[in-house]
Amino acid sequence: MLAGLRGTRRIEHQEEVPITDHLEELRNRIIISVVALGVGFAICFWQHELIIEFLNRPLPPELPKPIVLGVAEPFTISLKVALAGAVVLTIPVLIYQLYAYVMPAFDPEHDRRTWPYLAGASGLFFAGLAFGYFLVLPPALGFLVGYDSGLYNRQIDAGNYYGFVVQILIACGVIFQLPSGVFVLTTVGLMRAKWMRKNRRYAIFILTVIAAALPGGDVISMMIIFVALLVLYELSIYVAVFVERGKRGEVDPEATTDLVDVADVEDV
């Protein structure tokens, strides 16, 4: 099996290979991803105390540390936190394995233009994590912990708290992939900048629903997430324009003008 993994290679564009070769490459890339997750899990479990202390910092300082009620709960929480940390740690590997498997469907020119966006996808995910940790968690926790605080003896359940924090961080990392998703859809011809501008009103409604559906629970964090989504959507329009420029060699002057025209904002 190790010999097979060492021989894993990307199938080239228009290279004719049997279906078994595609399945073997898929198997090898899944194995590589699982091994990377295993290594990341071992590292995160080794340092799980630092991770848990890091996740505790957004809590209001007047609250005690999260409590556990079960005998095995500290161990199971450590496993869950380490697994979440492993996913975060290995995101660049996972994104590359997915990219390397699907890119043979595109020509070498698409392949060359994709590398900067491939690196950008990992950067956007980590930017989303930082956004969630520093901008979304503090107001969300401040509102939820302080809500009707005079009616309760407030104790934070550890399992519930870490699950909540991980959900917010992963969700923010995923929504920051919006430009990457638009890049892929524009590359394969399923998305156009003109269509995104034309349907901006509907997009704003959908982004509002997404912001409200994400974990958080308070108006402030929902508005912060919505503004971030709106900025990402506008950035995605630029991404679509540049992909189209690469595909056609030039951008429609009307499209470029509309993109930066202030009148578009007023139409919203």
Word description of this protein:
The chain is an all-alpha fold. It has one domain. Helices cover 75% and strands 0% of the residues. It has 13 helices and no strands. The C terminus is likely disordered.
SSE layout and pairing:
Layout: H1 2-6, H2 19-46, H3 48-56, H4 73-89, H5 91-102, H6 108-146, H7 158-175, H8 178-187, H9 193-198, H10 200-213, H11 219-248, H12 253-260, H13 262-267
Q: Any descriptors?
A:
268 residues; 0% strand; disordered C terminus
Total domains, how many?
1
Average pLDDT for all residues: 82
Order of helices and strands: HHHHHHHHHHHHH
Write down how many β-strands occur, each being a DSSP E stretch of 2 or more residues: 0
State the oligomer: single chain
Low-pLDDT segments, ≥5 res: 250-268
Termini separation: 56 Å
The total of helices stands at: 13
The percentage of residues in β strands lies in under 5%
Query: What is the helix content?
Result: over 70%
**Rg calculated over all Cα atoms:** 22 Å
- Determine the structural class based on helices, strands and strand pairing: mainly alpha
Task: Summarize the biggest pleated sheet.
Answer: none
Summarize this, please?
75% of the residues lie in helices and 0% in strands. The protein is mainly alpha-helical.
